[in-house]
Design a protein that fits this description.
Blueprint: H1 8-12, E1 21-24, E2 36-40, E3 49-50, E4 59-63, H2 69-79, E5 84-89, H3 96-105, E6 107-111, H4 119-122, E7 125-128, E8 134-140, H5 146-149, H6 151-159, E9 162-169, E10 176-177, E11 182-186, H7 187-192, H8 202-209, E12 213-217, E13 232-236, E14 239-244, H9 251-270, E15 276-281, E16 283-285, E17 288-290, E18 296-297, E19 301-306, H10 312-326, E20 330-335, H11 337-340, H12 346-349, E21 350-353, E22 362-363
Parallel strand pairs: 4-5, 5-6, 6-22, 8-9, 11-12, 14-15, 19-20
Antiparallel strand pairs: 1-2, 2-12, 3-7, 4-21, 7-8, 10-11, 13-14, 16-17, 18-19
Length: 375
């Protein structure tokens, strides 16, 4: 069932049934309607823009899990001198010694009653406004993960952020953007939100998300999340890195990724702006996608996945391509095998925020537990 976005009119002042300008992906079968490869929004009265993938954060949120304690330490040690590191501990926090270790490395620890460590997905989508204020879009996350879903509301006061609810299931990893109005999402994620490229409600969504052009990418064959950040990431307003797989071993996924490149270039051309594409090797094993583009930028460094189960030669080629894509940032290798085994990588457990957190320590009790007030 599709969900109406007419409530967006209140937020953006845009009409709820505009005319869409689209371009076909390919010649359709006789029985099928042409599917647009990108969607253009109507003239905007709101100059807000979705934050770019490549933009350096002032704060990095990190979702901790016992399976990747080493990775969290690596991230904090590499980046605490560049950005504020806020490590989120869920319902099963580590021992006190590990917490002290993170403190000694420069991290801030935030105790929350969370369901999962995938902070990218339930954290807010960030919008740059003309006035410079922090605007967070809080999409519905999951009926099964209600504790995760409340994170933006819990953190907003510490970041002086204005939170706007968005009653659609749009995970943070599902959308990528170049910071200048060009965004991308997979057809699966768009369908999960109850929308299609031809839906008249798309214009309202684009206005609210700060996208003037939304590229709709095909989904990888067996990738379970349907998230665009497995496929690609913008490393500058005019540059994007896109995963590439062995065409002989994985012909369908190779074709999907080549199509993603074509669509991104087509969407950029529709804006009369250049877009350089850097291809980065990706390994596929069953439903596990070892995506090297699923990393996270800091100010001077880039947190790149390192997979110890892959060959040194393959990883060297992937890191060489990445170094070109994220230059002048320097690569920091972060062990990510435990994450990929659970369906994510570095980008999925981190979320860069453009604001600094004014709250150095935050402990939030579960809503099921009554708050104990002093006598």
């Amino acid at each position: 069932m599709q969900k109406s976005l007419c409530w967006f009119v209140v937020l953006t002042g845009c009409a709820c049934a505009p005319t869409l300008r689209t371009a076909p992906v390919s010649q359709p079968e006789p029985s099928e309607a042409a599917q647009p490869s990108f969607v253009k929004r109507s003239a905007s009265r709101d100059p807000a823009l979705l934050r770019g993938d490549w933009e350096a954060p002032r704060t990095l949120l990190i979702g901790w899990d016992s399976d990747w304690s080493e990775a969290v330490e690596t991230i904090v040690a590499a980046g605490s001198s560049e950005v504020q590191m806020d490590v989120l501990f869920g319902e099963d926090p580590p021992d006190a010694e590990y917490e002290k270790q993170l403190f000694s490395l420069g991290a801030n620890v935030i105790h929350l009653d969370l369901d999962t460590p995938w902070v990218r997905d339930y954290g807010p989508l960030q919008i740059h406004t003309a006035t410079g204020e922090a605007r967070w879009l809080d999409a519905h996350y999951s009926f099964e993960r209600t504790r995760d879903d409340r994170l933006p509301q819990l953190l907003a006061p510490g970041f002086s952020a204005i939170v706007e609810s968005m009653p659609l299931e749009v995970d943070g990893g599902a959308v990528i953007g170049n910071g200048d109005g060009l965004c991308a999402i997979t057809d699966r994620s768009l369908g999960d939100a109850g929308l299609s490229p031809e839906d008249p409600d798309m214009d309202a969504l684009l206005h609210t998300m700060g996208c003037d052009t939304l590229a709709v990418l095909p989904n990888l064959t067996d990738e379970t999340t349907g998230h665009a950040d497995v496929i690609a990431q913008f490393t500058a307003p005019d540059r994007v890195m896109v995963s590439e797989v062995d065409a002989e071993r994985h012909p369908t996924d190779a074709a999907v990724l080549n199509e993603a490149v074509r669509i991104l270039r087509e969407a950029a051309a529709s804006r009369a702006k250049p877009l350089a594409v850097v291809r980065v090797p990706m390994h596929v094993s069953g439903k596990r996608y070892f995506s090297y583009v699923n990393g996270t930028p800091l100010k001077d460094h880039y947190l790149v996945p390192s997979f110890r189960t892959l060959s040194l030669d393959f990883e060297a080629r992937a890191h060489e391509a990445l170094a070109k894509a994220v230059a002048p940032r320097k690569l920091v290798s972060v062990p990510a095998d435990a994450m990929v085994d659970r369906g994510g990588v570095i980008h999925c457990i981190t979320l860069g925020l453009k604001e600094a957190n004014a709250v150095r320590e935050l402990d939030v009790a579960s809503p099921d537990e009554p708050e104990i007030l002093p006598l």
